[in-house]
Design a protein that fits this description.
By secondary structure, this protein is an all-alpha fold. The chain contains four helices and no strands. The longest helix is centred in the C-terminal third of the chain and has 15 residues. The N and C termini lie far apart (about 50 Å).
Length: about 80
């Protein structure tokens, strides 16, 4: 049998695990982080991704775009 517990980002996970292990019958405590990462293939296969790419191409062809500076790109991608 399993029990699912959702915690907020400020929860003291280690303390909660210790508490749960004190309960009779608890044999395992696993902590999962819901932040899922996606492969490039999964991203490309999302219908919404295709729509965004199509709109981006149409915007570029019609001249509705801005060029980004290297500084801004570095900041966006956490490069220093």
């Amino acid at each position: 049998m399993e029990i699912k517990v959702s915690l907020d980002e400020y929860a003291d996970v280690q303390f909660i695990k210790k508490l749960l292990f004190q309960l009779k019958g608890v044999v395992n405590v696993e902590v999962e982080n819901e932040e899922k990462s996606y492969s490039w293939n999964e991203i490309e296969n999302f219908e919404s991704f295709a729509k965004v790419m199509e709109q981006s191409e149409l915007d570029y062809k019609s001249g509705r775009h801005e060029e980004l500076t290297d500084d801004l790109l570095d900041e966006l991608f956490n490069k220093k």
